[in-house]
Write a structure and sequence with these properties.
single chain, 730 residues, alpha+beta, ten-stranded antiparallel sheet, 12 helices, 31% strand, binds (2R,3S,4R,5S)-2-(hydroxymethyl)piperidine-3,4,5-triol
């Protein structure tokens, strides 16, 4: 068992191969956190908690005159509210009597084999090869009859611990949950940096690093989606931690809606990290006997810097999160119609693009936005999921057949969660969109959001989508979302139910995914929210891949993919070669470089192939052949970021290494060029030091040690040019 309870000291010990997590039932039955980090042999680290009389930090009633026992000072596993811990709470609840206190004491615990699941929410699962054990600890508040169940699953071999929380109202009254954080982690020190990934539409996931300071640092989304602006993933690390060195802790939240992560450095230089559903806009009613299930957080620890932390997340997400069998399969090379034609097409034009892409080695044609309803621009049509036969004159079924006749698979774009005011759906069901009665709804991209907290809306979408999927030979779906949520109010519930709508929307969405995505295992689903506006683990449970960003500029993409790679596996990241000048930035980069960057993910094309020169088409063919040659290395290998966009302005480099360390692909892009430059070297990683390797196309033989310690001299190539090295053990 990876989980033990030591009766003599009342300590819970959770162990993976390389980590230990400890907590204990203290005097008076409070649950105190003791340790999380590198594996240690000690069975009880209680000595770390040094009781001291601390002024203005109160003492629980049962401590009587002992002024050294304070919940405001001791590290908590789940903090109380209103009962003597003045730091940020794990829970805020309004009890039946109007009081807002919660004081949980350990009532019971249970240890069992296997992974917990969470009703209605995606979470990691155990495969037959995994050893996973689970601990459930029930905290009970005697006065309010509210119970909190803390769930921990330990993936022993994979060095991962997951956490989740349930709240049970066992009182006779209705209570309101105003905050429930899925993870609380108290550290007894604060010598850490806080890393998170901030951004905006077309420039997602830029790494931000700041030392902890007194007070609260936080990131959040209140957009009804995990968002472009902040990703639900953070790292706490040593000040000098880098890719190869230092302690770092990752926290990845398995949820696609509003979230908040708060990090508080307290008066005694201790740290509390909280991660959960954003309390803003959240007030969940629990009637007597009801239970609330909060989403999961995935915790990982590395004592060897960020590269190892990323490998832990990549491995667990590839194997224990994505339900789709495509996760383990080579993906088809897609050509997508969006940047090729936007809304301006008919089926003949698209068939020409498809026809011209066959010779390039493309395997699938994806018909993006504009194929349905009255949809010649983004002003209208969303909600009317019938083929626009003025544009697709043959109808969708026939069009897909024509695509198939060319030897290509067929894929389709949808944006089911939205509605245009100029649509039959809106005219028939104006009450189905998110709006507040008596107010005009806020528009985003001229569209409104459907109210997925309503069962009838979800059922309608399930039927509509399943009908589309059955209407033609569709082998891929790009599921888009192009605005964030406002006017969050629903006519489907009463006044007191309005604080549930953000979360009920997510439950509705996951229900639709269960009924549409999981029932079509042979269709490849790609997630998209104006690019990477909903790139989160909960989405990866359903979609094996995500359109990483609406920005296809190769140079910007390097930074976006750099940030994304900290937690999300490379085989989930869709990346396309587009034309230059680039549509988002106006920059011109060599065709080769666009291929090199797009190969750092799932390679595809986003251009009008009828406008390519013969030379460019030949380059595509070469890119695709190379990509296929290296696919397993890219998809299954360990990923190394060799440079950091903040520090290395001259070139950016990254590397894929096979698990046996015998094969590697190194990619380098020159991002800034000066005249008469010093010789530059790229030092690579992850090889066997004493193994000898060859570099494809060169004569020499080099030790892993030489390649890693001395590096490879970069050739004198121009700005924005790129080079790839394929390294193989001899
Ligand atoms: C946003 C997506 O990210 C694009 O790729 C494209 O599908 C458009 N939406 C279509 O409206």
């Amino acid at each position: 068992m990876a989980i033990r309870f030591l009766e003599s000291t009342k300590t819970f010990i959770l162990e993976t191969k390389q980590t230990t997590y400890q907590m204990k039932i203290s005097k008076y039955d409070y649950l105190l956190h003791l340790y999380y980090g590198e594996k240690i042999p000690d069975a009880d680290l209680s000595y770390l908690i040094q009781p001291k009389d601390r002024g203005f930090s109160p003492n629980p009633y049962e401590a009587e005159y002992d002024r050294t026992f304070s919940l405001d000072v001791f590290p908590q596993e789940f903090s109380s509210d209103g009962c003597g811990d003045f730091r940020k709470p794990s829970i805020e609840v309004k009890n039946g009597d109007g009081s807002t206190a919660f004081l949980g004491k350990v009532k019971k615990y249970r240890i069992y084999s296997g992974k917990y699941s969470i009703p209605g929410l995606p979470s990691l699962f155990a495969t037959n090869d995994d050893t996973v054990d689970t601990l459930e600890i029930t905290l009970w508040d005697e006065a309010s009859s509210v119970a909190v169940v803390l769930l921990y699953s330990v993936f022993e071999e994979k060095n991962i611990i997951t956490r989740a929380v349930k709240v049970l109202n066992q009182s006779a009254h209705t209570i309101f949950l105003n905050r429930i954080m899925s993870t609380t982690l108290d550290y007894m020190e604060s010598n850490y940096d806080f890393i998170h990934f901030a951004g905006r539409h077309t420039m997602e996931r830029n790494l931000i690093r700041t030392p902890l300071r007194h007070g609260v640092q936080s990131i959040e989304s209140i957009r009804g989606a995990s968002s472009h602006q902040h990703n639900p993933f953070v790292i706490l690390c040593d000040h000098d931690a880098d890719e190869d060195r230092g302690d770092c802790y990752g926290f990845s939240f398995v949820y696609s809606g509003n979230f908040r992560c708060e990090i508080e450095k307290d008066q005694f230089d201790q740290t509390r990290l909280l991660f959960g559903i954003n309390p803003r806009g959240f007030c969940y009613r629990l009637k007597s006997g009801e239970c609330f299930d909060a989403p999961e957080t995935v915790l990982a620890y590395s004592n060897q810097g960020f590269a190892k932390l990323s490998h832990l997340y990549h491995d667990i997400y590839r194997n224990n999160l994505c339900r789709s069998h495509f996760s383990h399969m080579e993906r088809p090379i897609v050509i997508n119609s969006w940047e090729a034609a936007y809304f301006d097409f008919d089926d003949d034009k698209l068939l020409n693009i498809a026809k011209e892409s066959v010779d390039m080695g493309v395997e699938m044609f994806v018909l993006d936005d504009g194929w349905f309803g009255k949809r010649d621009s983004d002003f209208s049509g969303l909600g009317d999921w019938e083929t626009n036969t003025t544009k697709i004159k043959r109808g969708l079924t026939e069009f897909a057949k024509e695509i198939n006749k060319l030897g290509l698979k067929f894929g389709l774009w949808v944006e089911p969660e939205m509605v245009s005011e100029d649509s039959n759906l809106y005219r028939t069901h104006p009450e189905w969109c998110m709006h507040i009665e008596g107010r005009h709804p806020v528009r985003g991209r001229h569209q409104l959001v459907l109210d997925l907290s309503k069962k009838e809306v979800c059922d309608y979408l399930i039927n509509t989508l399943n009908h589309i999927l059955d209407s033609a030979n569709i082998e891929y779906i790009k599921w888009d979302l192009n605005r964030n949520m406002t006017d969050v109010w629903s006519s489907g519930t009463d006044v007191e139910g309005q604080g549930e709508i953000y979360h009920r929307y997510m439950l509705g969405l996951y229900y639709i995914f269960d009924q549409v995505i999981l029932t079509h295992p042979d269709i490849l689903f790609c997630g998209c929210a104006g690019g990477g506006g909903r790139y989160d683990p909960a989405m990866l449970y359903y979609y094996p891949e995500v359109w990483c960003s609406d920005n296809t500029d190769a140079i910007n993409r390097i930074t976006i993919q750099y940030g994304t790679s900290f937690v999300y596996p490379i085989n989930t990241l869709e990346s396309h070669v587009s034309v230059c000048p680039n549509h988002q930035t106006g920059r011109t980069t060599p065709f080769d470089t666009r291929g090199t960057v797009a190969m750092d993910g799932i390679l595809g094309y986003e251009l009008d192939s009828t406008k390519l020169t013969a030379e460019q088409k030949a380059l595509c063919k070469q890119q695709i052949a190379n990509y296929k040659k290296y696919y397993r290395l890219i998809a299954d290998g360990d990923y190394y970021r060799l440079t950091n966009p903040e520090k290395t302005k001259k070139f950016m480099a990254w590397q894929h290494v096979s698990k046996d360390k015998c094969s590697s692909l190194v990619s380098v892009v020159i991002t800034y060029k000066e005249s008469n430059e010093p010789q530059r070297y790229v030092k690579i990683k992850g090889l066997l030091p004493d193994q000898f390797y060859t570099i494809e196309g060169e004569n020499g033989v080099y030790s892993g040690r030489a390649l890693m310690k001395a590096g490879i001299p970069l050739p004198d190539i121009g700005e924005y040019e790129s080079i790839q090295y394929h390294i193989t053990a001899v």
